[in-house]
User: Which sequence fits this backbone?
């Protein structure tokens, strides 16, 4: 009995040793840079995608949307997929900037795949939480004893949308004294507002920093404000509705004229513009016109794995991808609109419609 057992044990050890010495299956690394508001749904998307395509390993990084663009077009990092919370950034910064090695634009197409709404996140014990609502939110968060978080508009789309929200509230309410109580004297170099007959223009200075006693708290990306809010360092924070729901926070839903998420209010939103006086963008002058929130995705021309990148985007646009996104409270468009339809990978064309 002992001899067969010893032989079996020896064979098992030898087989185990052979198995252990086999080289691991090499996976294709797919580098995805995305807006911070996509962290949770894209994490779930990543798991489902890798289960379907075990030969691909997604390496994801999340930043404010403008910072995502800068990693591609200014830092020239090898990125395979770029997903931003504002489609306007792609033609502004990627169409207009060339890959140094080829002299061709970083992108000449994108797909508009999702929307959102701007809202105010808070805790149950935030100051005046029992008082704030969709009618008085501008007055409540402008109070000197209330700490409100805003993403830096130089790096994050939700930051310049927060500024737009106040200007749109002024227009909707015909009350042009709402912006200043919130933002005047809060920064070492002022954020200015010019109210023209047809356009309200907000200008953000190149150096943007809050004064020590400011009731405005500035962070590089809106997702950074969540931890500060949960820790009690903030009373309110401008966040996207999807993010607020994902984190189980309380929410003040902003009026349709203000939340930048309603198709029916698209023309109303166009009355506001934010200009960035930002010298880092040497070739463009960033100007953001009010419009319905639209998330865009593309493949940089410098991508090292464009075929796998197209697979990932196709998965995002599939029924399974839609189900994952919407389970995380992130609304997808009924139709996926492609700017530069003929330039996108052929695998994506049946999933999209040309932009009119």
Assistant:
């Amino acid at each position: 009995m002992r001899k067969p057992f010893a032989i079996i044990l020896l064979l098992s050890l030898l087989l185990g040793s052979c198995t252990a010495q086999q080289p691991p299956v090499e996976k294709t690394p797919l580098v995805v840079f995305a807006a911070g508001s996509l962290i949770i749904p894209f994490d779930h998307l990543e798991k489902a995608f890798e289960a379907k395509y075990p030969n691909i390993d997604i390496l994801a990084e999340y930043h404010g949307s403008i910072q995502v663009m800068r990693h591609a077009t200014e830092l020239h990092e090898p990125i395979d997929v770029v997903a931003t919370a504002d489609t306007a950034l792609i033609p502004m910064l990627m169409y207009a900037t060339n890959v140094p090695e080829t002299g061709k634009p970083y992108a000449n197409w994108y797909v508009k795949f999702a929307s959102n709404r701007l809202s105010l996140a808070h805790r149950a014990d935030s100051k005046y939480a029992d008082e704030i609502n969709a009618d008085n939110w501008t007055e409540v968060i402008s109070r000197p004893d209330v700490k409100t978080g805003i993403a830096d508009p130089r790096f994050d789309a939700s930051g310049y949308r927060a500024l737009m929200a106040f200007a749109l509230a002024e227009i909707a309410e015909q009350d042009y004294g709402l912006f200043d109580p919130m933002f005047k004297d809060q920064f070492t170099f002022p954020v200015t507002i010019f109210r023209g007959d047809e356009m309200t223009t907000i200008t953000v200075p190149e150096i943007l920093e809050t004064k020590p006693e400011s009731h405005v708290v500035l962070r590089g990306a809106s997702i950074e404000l969540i931890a500060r809010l949960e820790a009690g360092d903030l009373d309110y924070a401008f966040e996207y509705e999807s993010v607020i729901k994902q984190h189980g926070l309380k929410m003040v839903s902003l009026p349709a004229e203000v939340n930048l998420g309603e198709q029916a209010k698209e023309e109303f939103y166009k009355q506001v513009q934010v200009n960035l006086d930002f010298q880092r963008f040497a070739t463009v002058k960033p100007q953001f016109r009010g419009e319905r929130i639209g998330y865009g995705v593309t493949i940089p021309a410098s991508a090292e794995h464009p075929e796998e990148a197209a697979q990932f985007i196709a998965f995002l646009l599939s029924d399974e991808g839609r189900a994952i996104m919407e389970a995380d409270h992130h609304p997808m468009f009924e139709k996926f609109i492609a700017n530069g339809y003929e330039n996108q990978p052929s695998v994506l064309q049946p999933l999209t419609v040309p932009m009119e």
